[in-house]
Structure formats: C-alpha cells, structure tokens
Design goal:
The complex is a heterodimer of chains A (about 280) and B (about 250). Chain A has about 280 residues and is an all-alpha fold. Chain A has ten helices and no strands. Chain B is α/β, with parallel strands linked by helices and about 250 residues long. Classes of the chains: A mainly alpha (about 280), B alpha/beta (about 250).
Chain lengths: ~280, ~250
C-alpha cells in the first residue's frame, strides 16, 4: 500500500478562512467605529484653541493640532463617518447600477444593448472630474450632489465589465444545460450568471473605494463636496497642503487614515473574491 | 407506432446583415421512434450541432417543423417551451464545462426537478439515487465540477439528463472528449439505460465515429453539408454505402 497523497489545498483553505475573519473584523471595526465616532473623540473636533495651533504630536494630542488648534485625532475620528459612509454609498450605487445595466445589456442584447452602451460610451468619453464639476455646479455644492455627480460618471465601467462577463457566460455549454433544465430568465441570472460574474466586479468596486474617496476629496477641495468645518479626510488633506513643510502631521493624519481604510477594504475585497470561488476554496 | 419526434423540412440559414447567407442545415426530415436509438453522423461543419440546437430550441429554425410527441414546438417560447424540456434532455460533448462551475453537481442534477416543483429534500434523495443509477457514489452530489474527472462528470451529466425522466435523450458527441476506456464505460451505461427503459427512452446519438454508431444505434443518418445524404441501419450503410461522402467516411477507418 502506498501512502495517501496529502493535499496542499487544505492549508491554503485555512489561511483563507483566517484572512476572511481578520479583514472582515477590521472592516467591521472601521464601520462600527465610524458610526459611533462622535462618542469616541477625546476632544471636541470643532473646538478651536488658538493658543495652541499647529502643535506637534504629543501625549495630549497624539496627532497634533491644526492651524486653528483643533485636535487632529478627534477630527480624523469624526471625519471617518463622512468619508467612509459617503464613499461606501457611492461605490454601492455605481456597482449596483452598473451591474444591473450591464447584465441586462449582455443578456437581452439587441437594440437596448446598443442604446445603453452608447450612453455609457458618452459618459466614458467625458473627462470624469470635469463632468462631475458640471453636475455639481448645476445641482449646487454639498456632499449629496458630489455623490450624485461621481455616480453619474462612474457606473459605465461596471456596466462594461458586467456586460462582457454576461456575454461570456451566455456562450458556455452549461448555459445550454441550465436552459434545458427549464429555469426561467430570473433564476438563470440570479443563480447562475451573477455568482459567475461577481468576482471581477467585486474586486473593481473594492479597488474603487480608494479612488472614490480621493475623488470625493477632490470635489470637497474645490468647494463642491463636504463644506468646512465638516471634518472629511479628503478635504482635511486638501485644505492643509500648504502646511506640509511646517506641520506635516496635519496633512499626514487624514492621509494615513485614508491609506489604512483603503488598504483594509482592498484586502477584504481580495479575500471575499477568493472565498466566493469554489476553485479557490480547497477541495 | 407513432414517432416521438418528427422533424420536417428543417432549415437554418445564417446571414450577416442580409448578405453572406450560409445554409447550415438544408431541408432535413426524419422521425425518431419510441425506444429507438438514432445515430446522426457527419464531419465537423456538416450541421449536426445546428440541427440539434434547433431541435432543443436553443436556436430558431429558419424554416420547417419540429413535432414532439404530436405537439408542434417549432415556435414555442417562454413557459410553454420550458415545459417541453421535461420530455427532452441533452448530454454535452464537454462534461466539465456542461456544469455551472459555481454549483455543486447535486444542484445541477436537481435543477430540473426543482423547476418542476419538487421539494428540496425530495430533490436531494432523487439526485443521490440518479448518481447511483449512473454508477457514481451519492456523495458526488456535494462536489463541484472541477473536483471530478471527465468521465465521472459525464456520468453526472447523464444523471442530470435523466432526472426529469425525459422521453428523448440527445447525446451530442457525448463520448468524444473522453478517452477510449472511459468512452466504453459511458456507452455501457447508456446501453444499460436503454435496456432498462425500453420504449420509454429514445436516444438521438450525434457522433462522428462510425464504429461507435455501428455498435450502439438502430438506425443512422449521414449528414453532409447540411443535408441527409444517407439513411439506414448501420450495417447496411457500412456494407453498402451509396453516397461518395459515406464511402470516404468508411474508407477512412478501414
């Protein structure tokens, strides 16, 4: 009798589970933290202390203070709510809209496909931020309008991905088998197409969390997003660029916060994609 | 005896924006009798796949009629079409690719039963029974398609096709992608099913290997450039080929 073969996949499956738990917990902590951010701040994030401006990090103010003497740690904590939630909302909107449009186009084809895809081409052809500026300009400033503006220009990317993936799945041999089993269109799309196309879409949207956070920040900087004194990471960074040489912590603190949260969401995205694929889930 | 499936004058023309017309299947007519195993043989591009795609209504016919068990199904769509699939099932050339990679084999096998309104528990026991009938352990229901071999997957595909108890089983080159020993096993399985089901199961066996057809089929149609050029029992066709293409086909294996 020969020794039974030991499979390496077993080990990889375990790290996948651990990764899922770790990144899932981190992301959950980030979200919970931002929900209760107002109760977690050591100081009032809007309280100015003009005797103590641009103070470097110390035991009292771990991230230092800004040019009005406001505690940076408190501002970063409070800013998490605006930054994370508006970004997640934005990414959710564009992912869902783009996927629905893309799957519809890919599945249905014909003239609706042509029409919707030409519309999405139109949006893709515009320089994104300029278009967002125009939309925000028409609708007026404010975070809501910034989200609407960015959503309007960002969904076509998802529609493209979802459409091409749907077209690919439509041509597979198993699609014939599924049709022969008597499943209706709704069931085919929900049970067979979506699980097969969600991987690349999920990864794109996770990567977009970072991009969208920065674009929202850009609009805020131009006065079309979050309005001062609202603490929002992007606008906090943009506002204080001039202080980078003299008081770098004021710019770096929100920067690090963006970096860390983007990183957590990206890693979570990668892990969820691996987990969703049975081929990666071990044997 | 009444034919279970009649194909009359079936034609498919592919055209691109009105020009470049290509007739893949030209005025094909044949009958499939209950319990019969009918082979369709022909080289690549002879229109075999187009023909069965039309019969299973995955592709629309340009002209002609398909009559299944006395009912014309040529122009059915939606719910009425889905009902037709309770009497017609198919086994594909590529076993692994014929299962959704995200679904367990058991789910694939049970899907037609679930669609027919059977309960989840009922479907599960039935899938296990079908797997065993097709020579696989019941535990295979929990596996994903990439976790089983080609031959095992083809057995599962046969189990899936039989789940709804169809009257017609279409095998589209069901053995071509398998190596010869596995091919033999699959044929033995199909042969056993034929014996057990008797006149309840007719088989349409699409193949390009005339030796297999001779072993397995009661009657054979030879297709060439979209037309049926010869028809008869395999032995007659092989001993006394009338058509040039059939002669070449037989020469090629001798």
């Amino acid at each position: 009798m020969s020794e039974p073969t030991v499979r390496i996949q077993k080990v990889r499956r375990d790290t996948l589970k651990i990764r899922l738990i770790v990144f899932g917990t981190l992301a959950a902590l980030l979200l919970i933290g931002s929900i209760f951010s107002e109760h977690l701040t050591p100081y009032d994030p809007y309280l100015q202390d003009l005797m103590n401006t641009k103070a470097p990090p110390s035991a009292e103010h771990p991230f230092g203070t800004d040019r009005y003497g406001r505690d940076m740690l408190s501002r970063v904590i409070v800013g998490s709510r605006t930054s994370i939630f508006s970004t997640l909302l934005l990414v959710t909107i564009i992912t869902v809209t783009g996927t629905v449009v893309g799957v519809f186009c890919g599945w249905h084809g014909k003239w609706t496909d042509t029409l919707l895809m030409r519309i999405s081409d139109m949006f893709l052809a515009f320089p994104g931020l300029v278009f967002a500026l125009a939309v925000a300009g028409v609708l007026g400033g404010g975070l809501h309008n910034a989200i609407i503006a960015l959503a309007a220009i960002s969904w076509p990317k998802y529609a493209r991905i979802a459409r091409s993936q749907t077209l690919a799945q439509k041509e597979t041999a198993w699609m014939k088998a599924v049709k022969l089993s008597g499943s209706g269109t709704g069931k085919i799309i929900l049970k067979h197409i979506l699980p097969n196309i969600i991987g690349p879409i999920l990864v794109t949207s996770m990567l977009d969390i970072g991009t969208m956070m920065m674009e929202l920040a850009g609009l805020s900087f131009l006065g079309l997003g979050a309005k001062p004194p609202t603490a929002e990471w992007g606008s906090m960074m943009s506002d204080t660029r001039s202080l980078l040489a003299t008081a770098p912590w004021v710019t770096l603190a929100p920067g690090v916060a963006i970096f860390v949260s983007v990183m957590i969401f990206n890693l979570l995205g990668d892990t969820v994609r691996d987990w969703a694929d049975p081929k990666m889930r071990g044997r | 005896m009444e034919a279970i499936l009649s194909v009359r004058n079936l034609t498919r023309v592919f055209s691109r924006k009105g020009k470049e017309r290509f007739t893949a299947v030209k005025h094909v007519s044949f009958d499939l009798m209950p319990g019969e195993c009918l082979g369709i043989i022909g080289e690549s591009g002879s229109g075999k796949t187009t023909l069965i795609n039309m019969i299973t209504r995955l592709l629309d016919a340009t002209e002609g009629q398909i009559i299944l068990d006395g009912e014309e199904i040529t122009n059915l769509s939606g719910k009425a079409l889905r009902k037709v699939y309770a009497s017609m099932q198919m086994v594909f050339q590529t076993p692994t690719e014929s299962f959704d990679p995200r679904c367990r084999l058991g789910d694939g096998i049970g899907e037609s039963l679930r669609n027919a309104g059977r309960s989840r528990a009922d479907t599960k026991t039935e899938a296990a029974r079908l797997l065993e009938e097709c020579g696989l352990p019941a535990e295979f229901a929990e596996r994903y398609p990439h976790q089983v071999s080609g031959g095992q997957c083809q057995r599962a595909a046969i189990a899936r096709a039989l789940a709804i108890r169809p009257k017609i089983l279409i095998c589209d080159e069901a053995t071509s992608a398998l190596d010869v020993t596995i091919q033999k096993e699959i044929l033995e399985l199909l042969n056993r099913l034929r014996r057990e089901k008797g006149t309840d199961l007719s088989i349409l066996f699409i193949c390009h290997d005339i030796a297999l057809v001779q072993q397995f089929c009661d009657r054979v149609l030879v297709m060439y450039h979209g037309e049926i050029v010869e028809e008869g029992t395999p032995d007659n066709v092989i001993r006394n080929p009338q058509n040039d293409y059939t002669k070449r086909l037989i020469d090629s294996i001798l």
